[in-house]
Amino acid sequence: MPSWRSSTNECVRCAHRSLATTQSLVKKRLLNILFWSILSAAFIGPGTVTTAASAGADFGFGIVWALTFSIIACTVLQEASARLTLATGHNLGESIRNHFAGQPLGRVVTGTVAGAIILGCAAYEAGNILGAVEGFGLIFDVSPAAYTVVSGLAAGLLLWFGTTRLVAHVLGALVAFMGVCFLTTAILLDPPLVPLLKGGVVPQIPEGAGLLILALIGTTVVPYNLFLGSGVSGGQTVREMRLSLPFAIILGGTISLSVLVVGAAMADAFTFQKLADQLSQQLGSWAVYLLGFGLYGAGFSSAITASMAAAITARGVLADDPEVSDWQEDGTMYRLVWGGVLAIGVGFGVTQVQPIPAIILAQALNGVILPIVAIYLLLMVNSAAELGPEMINSPRYNVLMGLVVFVTIVLGVTNLLEALNNLFTAPLVGSTLILGLSVAAALLLGWPIVRAVQRLRDQTAPSSSFIDVA
């Protein structure tokens, strides 16, 4: 055989091998993004649909910046939470349990954390089931109770028989389906791009928008999702996680933005039915199917993730040994936790409590819980003794994460002060003073947090504790 033909054949074989390698890498990357879409499925529930659509209906594109910030904040905190697991072999819940082990009130602290997260999951579960049922109710004239029971059974069967990876891939497919529904609707509405882009990067707080701004951030950066992301991140490398997780969260943020755009098309106060009627008038009756199926997908996927997050958190925080059979995915305790949360959601669905006010209230309360979890996570990922000097936050990342934590503190304190202010017939102070007090409180908390971070970065022995409870 002539040498040139042999060389040509070798080049062809090399090209085939290179192509196969590239295809394998692309497939792996897509599967990783699909896997991390479990986080998008978790925060894109009926609460996100309700809150984002309400924000669009009430303020147009004026508070899109809050959604932009929430996507950045979600990415920063979820990356830190997943990195904690990959670096130490312990998820966020286990790290909290290990940190407080042996302290006088350690059990009280871990029990409070677990209780707050599980109760939060249960509260969200009610909204998830109710929202999913309302989505189907926009399309089909069938008993809501029947939809509730069928949806609950389907979620229960998937959690009972499915592995974490299988559940994640199913939820990733649901996220893609929701994306098609909501993004198609938003594009067909042909929103003005300049006001939309300006609203996404120029912060402003219109009169009466404070609660919805807090809710927009709270619906995306959910405390129990930090435990969920940390709990499912095992088996990957830090590099794989960093290349896949942001894409999945940005996908979820794009869906949230699409919902806000759809809500901005409303000419009246937001309800699901009014939104369906508005879309029918503007786009045709088929648009109701996109809204209904999208809302059902949001509720069903979040019903699964809320139940799973509750079980993962309980296993990490409460189990002395998470490896015992009762706390494995097919164990009794693990199934009792997610089963209990799912049962609460189904119960509310059968009784047909109206979801919208309860969902928005839950999102706002979530803004108060979030700073506590964010501060703790910031301290955890700066512990050189736990993660090793090469895996702790870089100084630049600390600046970004510190900003995220600072803003969550401001929002949380603002929500508390506004709630106290509203207890009186005539408000005692104005919104400007409340915001000023919130910033002052965040600054006061900031100094001891900075000192604790520096101390942790200099530590070499894992025995030292950065929070003591007596």
What is the tally of helical segments? 18
Strand element count: 0
Uncertain stretches: none
What is the fourth-level CATH superfamily?
A: Amino acid/polyamine transporter I
Helices and strands, in order, run as HHHHHHHHHHHHHHHHHH
CATH architectural category:
Up-down Bundle
Largest sheet: none
Question: Which shape, going by the Cα principal axes?
Answer: globular
Supply the number of structural domains: 1
Q: Helix- and strand-based class?
A: mainly alpha
Q: Can you give the helix content as a percent range?
A: over 70%
Measured between the Cα atoms of the first and last residue, the distance is: 84 Å
How big is the Rg?
23 Å
* Percentage of residues in strands: under 5%
CATH fold group? Amino acid/polyamine transporter I
Give structural attributes.
single chain, 470 residues, Amino acid/polyamine transporter I, globular
Question: How would you describe what is shown here?
Answer:
The chain is mostly helical and 470 residues long. It has one domain (29-368): Amino acid/polyamine transporter I, CATH 1.20.1740. 79% of the residues lie in helices and 0% in strands. It has 18 helices and no strands. The chain has helices spanning 3-43, 46-59, 64-88, 92-100, 106-137, 144-161, 164-188, 193-201, 210-220, 223-232, 238-264, 272-283, 287-318, 332-351, 355-380, 384-387, 395-421, 431-458. α6 crosses α13. The chain is globular, with a radius of gyration of 23 Å. It starts with a helix and ends in a 12-residue tail after the last helix. The mean pLDDT is 80.
